[in-house]
Write a structure and sequence with these properties.
Layout: H1 2-22, H2 35-46, H3 59-72, H4 82-94, E1 95-99, H5 106-112, H6 117-124, E2 137-141, E3 165-168, E4 171-174, E5 181-184, E6 187-190, E7 196-198, E8 203-210, E9 216-221, E10 226-231, E11 235-236, E12 243-244, E13 249-252, E14 263-270, E15 273-275
Antiparallel strand pairs: 1-2, 3-6, 4-5, 6-14, 7-13, 8-9, 8-12, 9-10, 10-14, 11-13, 14-15
Helix pairs in contact: 1-4
Bound molecules: zinc ion (ZN).
Length: 282
């Protein structure tokens, strides 16, 4: 699988290098739309930028290009010409995406990809390097590591989905309804019924529906194998497959599922594992 992925990335890069010789690539700038803009956005997302893949070169895409140009020592003009395009290809070629498997650790991965542990930690913004989780996607910067200049872009930046008091934190607790002790995989944020629930980060809606005790819920997929979960909502305003922007209203606070009153149960997962949202929220 890893070999195939590596091969695939290399094939893509070779295609990207050949393509300009076949047809002169156009200079991309803000306001443009098209397949080439979408390709650019895909590369930027692969490099860790939090973007909506819509094929439209808007302010988000321009900000990402500027930030990359600044990190790479290029002229910061937000335009994608030959130099920026070459740098993108070079960066993409030097980074391998690795999906963490059971039994992986950073020492093993560093050896496997001929790099050093410190660079993997830095590039992925890992707070707890001893606990990488199966399903988590790590970006492994190989050899030259020009990509380190991109820090700390790697981590998905989150905002609060609703404002309110936290009635129940992450970890072990006694459930207020069933009165049994169990592990709470999220945080409960109290807010009035009908309060707007906003996407914690940009991403793609991967699931909408009823999940038993968790009630009516929305799941959004982000970069790096990260998903955010919004439970007990009363109304959902997005569809599966839809790209959403950070801060966009996706649902309304409700009291569906097993609850004592209206609140949002907000969760963050890496792969299949929940993590403490308070470590991710500003
Ligand atoms: Zn909860």
């Amino acid at each position: 699988m890893r070999v195939i992925r590596r091969w695939f990335i290399h094939a893509l890069v070779i295609l990207m290098l050949i393509a300009p010789a076949v047809a002169e690539a156009r200079l991309l700038r803000r306001g443009m739309r098209g397949q080439d803009v979408l390709s650019l956005q895909h590369i930027l997302v692969d490099l860790g930028y939090d973007l909506v893949l819509d094929g439209a070169f808007g302010s988000e895409t321009e900000d990402a290009v500027r930030s990359l140009q600044a990190a790479m020592g290029l002229t910061v003009d937000g335009l994608v010409g030959e130099k920026t395009r070459d740098k993108l290809a070079e960066l993409q070629a030097s980074i391998v995406l690795h999906t963490v498997q059971k039994g992986d650790n950073l020492t093993k991965l560093a050896k496997e990809y001929d790099t050093v542990v410190r660079n993997i930690i830095l590039y992925n913004g890992l707070k707890d390097p001893d606990h990488i989780l199966p399903g988590q996607v790590l970006y492994i910067p190989t050899n030259s590591v020009p990509a380190l200049g991109l820090l700390p872009l790697r981590r998905v930046t989150m905002q609060w989905p609703v404002e309110g008091r936290i009635s129940s934190g992450y970890g072990y607790r006694t459930h207020p309804v069933s009165n049994t002790k169990h592990f709470h995989g999220g945080i409960d944020i109290v807010a009035p019924e009908g309060t707007k629930v906003q996407a914690a980060a940009s991403g793609k809606v991967s699931s909408v529906g009823n999940r038993g005790n968790y009630g009516l819920s929305v799941v959004i997929e982000h970069a790096g194998g990260v998903t955010t979960w919004y439970g007990h909502v009363s109304k959902v305003s997005v569809k599966v497959g839809e790209q959403v922007k950070q801060g966009q209203t996706i649902a309304l606070v409700g009291s569906t599922g097993l609850v004592t009153g209206p609140h949002l149960d907000f969760r963050i997962k890496i792969g299949d594992q929940t993590v403490d949202p308070l470590e991710w929220l500003p």
